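Dear colleagues,

For the upcoming journal club I promised to circulate an example of a predicted protein-ligand complex. I picked one with nicotinamide-adenine-dinucleotide because it came up in last month's discussion. The inputs are reproduced below in full, followed by the predicted structure.
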Amino acid sequence: MTFQKILITGAGGQIGSEMVPFLSEIFGRDRVIPSDIRIEGEDDRFIHLDVTDRDSLDLAIEKYGIDTIFHLAAILSASGEKNPELAYKVNIDGLHNILLAAVKHKIGLVMVPSSIGVFGPETPREDVPIETVTRPVTIYGVSKLIAEQLGYYYHRRYELDVRGLRFPGLISYKTPPGGGTTDYSIEMIFEAVKGNQYKCFLREDSKLPMMYMPDALKSFLRLAEADSSKLIHRTDFNVSSFSMTPKQLEIELKKYFPYFKVEYVPDFRQEIADSWPGSLDSSAAVREWNFSPDYDFSKTVADMVQNLKLKPGVPLPS
Ligand SMILES: NC(=O)c1ccc[n+]([C@@H]2O[C@H](COP(=O)([O-])OP(=O)(O)OC[C@H]3O[C@@H](n4cnc5c(N)ncnc54)[C@H](O)[C@@H]3O)[C@@H](O)[C@H]2O)c1
C-alpha cells in the first residue's frame, strides 16, 4: 500500500514547505504527516523528528501508520562544506535510518531526492548522461552518491521500492533556500524585485542546470507514481528544465528592471559550481516516467517576478 499516510522529513525546507501543501491537495490533508528537526509556522500537523534518531523514527512510523516516505531532510552543498561531519550524519546516517525503518515497517515507497552534486570535475560538462564519472568534490555530493547506491542496494536486497532523481538548482520564492550553490539565482531575483543591486557569489559565466519549483514537485510525484515495472533506473534519474549562467539571469531581469546591476565576486562556492556540469541528459526520465517540465528559463523568471511583486517580504537566507 502507498500514499495512504505519507511521512515527509525535512518538511520545513525549501522543497518540503511546498511539497506539504502540494501533496495535501492531491491526497488529502490527513494523509500527509510533515516532520522536521525545527518546527516553524502554524501547520498543526507538523511533528518534531530528527532523522538521525532511529527510535523516534520507528515510533513516528508506528504511531501514524506510515506507508510512504518522502525523505527531504538533508544538509545542502554549501552548508555541508561548513560542517562536513553534520552533513555525513544527516545525509548518510539519516538516510540509512530511513531505509532500515522502511524495511522493518514494510513501507511501500521511499522517495529520496539526489542532486547534480554527485558530479565532479572529471564529469563531462554538457549533456551529461546518468552513468558517467561521478567523483564529487563536496561531502554533500559524496553523501548523495552513497544515497543513490544505498537505494539500489535496498531495492535489490530487500525489494524496497526506493526512487529518486538528481534535482538541479531549484528556483522558488515561498521559502528561502537552505544553503546550496545555486541559491544565487533566487537571491538575484529577490534583489532585482526589491530594486536593489546584487553581489553574486558565482562568476558570470557559471552555467548550471536549473528547474522551477512547480516542475520539481510535479516531477517528484510523477516518479513516485510511475509504474515500477517500467523503471530501469531507480534513484539517479537526471532531470533539468533549462541551463543558465548568472549573466543570462541578469540580462533577463534587466527586461523587467532596466537599472538592475550585478557585481560578480566569486567565493568558495565557485569551486563547487565549477565541478558541476552545465547541462544534463534527462532522456531516461522522459522514457521511463514521462518527465516533462512546463517552465523554461524565461517563463520561470516571469513567474518569479510576478509572484514576488504580489508577495513581497519573504526573507532571504542570511
Ligand atoms: N533545493 C535545491 O536546489 C535542491 C537541489 C538538489 C537536491 N535537493 C535535495 O532535496 C532535498 C530537500 O532540499 P531542500 O532544498 O528542501 O533543503 P533545505 O535545506 O531547504 O531543507 C532541509 C530540511 O531538513 C531539515 N533537517 C536538517 N537536519 C535534519 C535532521 N537531522 N532531521 C530532520 N530534519 C532535518 C532542515 O531543518 C530543513 O528544514 C534534499 O535531499 C536536497 O539534497 C535540493
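Two points we might discuss: The chain has two domains: 6-169+211-238, 170-210+241-278+294-310. The first strand starts at residue 6 and ends at 9.

See you all on Thursday,
B. R.
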